[in-house]
């Protein structure tokens, strides 16, 4: 897939840029709610065009802004096949539907503008506060950017950064994350990297919970893993039971699970793991 930023008729001022990956709201996939997503481009065109910020505004605050809808309106190119023209319209929000998560406005839109950014200017800076998704007879509506959506977008960008971070290691023997936040989603990404030579893994103080350690325990490729540090996380009893079911770390010799709320019963299960025949140190 290709992105054509700022296309004007047949002119491509920034060329054609390949799309590396796209993300769609999980709530939209499940229930067709929160209609939004992002595209990750292989080239940082924003270094040429500049960037919009993201703003999560309260309903009453949005009503005080002059908001803009900028996109490719279908009626403007109806008589011009295979061309695109970017148009922008300005207006005010008339109502915020918090139940549906929509901004309602009288700003004119047309077919083809779904996915257009909804933005405002403040102090010479530009901020996106929604994504246009719906046209109707009386009002048009974009999805309202909420704090939960902002957090989801943040996690998507962290996933991409995490992948770039992992690529620099290749077949490394030691892997530790000093300043990198690790979530369950990032652990699942880590599982996709075979890292067949990995011997030492440090995941201390990463707030890994039972769900995260479940994904970790399902790993089947780290047969050379000998030292695993999971201290000072949030694994708990259930997480420890799941970890005890691992069947692939045949060379694991040192396992640190201190400060995780793990009791004697779970410690017994960990010691009874039949795969970890090389285990010499278990720190609970």
Blueprint (SSEs and pairs):
Layout lengths: L1 E2 L13 E8 L1 H6 L5 E5 L4 H4 L3 E2 L4 H4 L4 E5 L15 E5 L1 E5 L4 E4 L11 E6 L2 E11 L4 E5 L2 H21 L6 E3 L7 H8 L8 E3 L7 H8 L9 E3 L6 H8 L10 E3 L7 H8 L9 E3 L1
Gist of the model:
The protein is α/β, with parallel strands linked by helices. It is built from eight helices and 16 strands.
Keyphrases for this structure?
284 residues; alpha/beta; Thrombin, subunit H; Leucine-rich repeat, LRR (right-handed beta-alpha superhelix); 2 domains; eight-stranded mixed sheet; five-stranded parallel sheet; 26% strand
State the order of secondary-structure elements, H for helix, E for strand: EEHEHEHEEEEEEEHEHEHEHEHE
- Domain module count: 2
Instruction: Specify the CATH homologous superfamily of the largest domain.
Output: Trypsin-like serine proteases
- The CATH class of the largest domain, by name, is Mainly Beta
Q: State the helicity in percent bands.
A: 10-25%
**In one word, what is the shape?**
elongated
Which spans have pLDDT < 50 for at least 5 consecutive residues? none
As for the CATH topology of the largest domain, it is Thrombin, subunit H
Tell me the β content.
25-35%
In total, the number of strands is: 16
Q: What would CATH call the architecture of the largest domain? A: Beta Barrel
SSE class: alpha/beta
The average pLDDT is 88
Tally of DSSP helical segments = 8
